[in-house]
Amino acid sequence: MRYDSVAERGRYRLCDTMGILADDLTGLHETDVSLLLRGHIKAGYKFKEDSPISEEDEHYIKDPSDLEKSHCLAIVIPCTQVENISTAYKDKIVKAIRAARRENIPGVIVLTMIDRLCTHVMESVDKVFTCSHIKDVVKMAKETFGVPEMYIFPLMNYSSQLIKDDCTDIIALLTLKKILEFTSDHIEGPEQQ
Fold this sequence. Notes:
The chain is mainly α. The protein has a single domain (about 5-190), classed as Rossmann fold, CATH 3.40.50. It has six helices and three strands. It has helices spanning about 5-10, 30-35, 85-100, 125-130, 130-145, 165-190, and strands at about 75-80, 105-110, 150-155. Strands 1-2-3 form a three-stranded parallel β-sheet, with helices on both faces. Strand 1, helix 3 (about 85-100) and strand 2 (about 105-110) form a beta-alpha-beta unit. Helix 1 (about 5-10) crosses helix 6 and helix 2 runs parallel beside helix 3. It is globular, with a radius of gyration of 17 Å.
């Protein structure tokens, strides 16, 4: 099942959870990340920062189906935080990416707010791929989180615009398209590719 057929059939679902936060007492618990990726947590579960879900919880799925499992992990972080990221925050992100890799699930990094690094990106979508400041932060993210550059996506945010902007939308749609392609590849498995 390629990206086109997945998108045509509408057979994809985007799930959002509490974020991975910098200190040990807030954010998604490390164990829950792994359980979530493997499909053991039902929608509606209220994550607890200090403890993972127990197998007795009504939201715990003992034998998840493929539909309940994750097929891509996307971590969203402002590009302005990459350079000065705390060790605790970096370690949590790296652990989440490693948990995905253990399950052979692709993990991507989405770097937001790139228009704060390079104001020229508002002029043309091409600037996203040629701006040296953005290239530098992508390389820094690669080194910091251990993710290949092809899995790192710079993205602009709607922050002060009142009207939709084609450049912002194009970059977001390209990012989503690549995430869906990685998802499709994971669903197909190596024997189908």
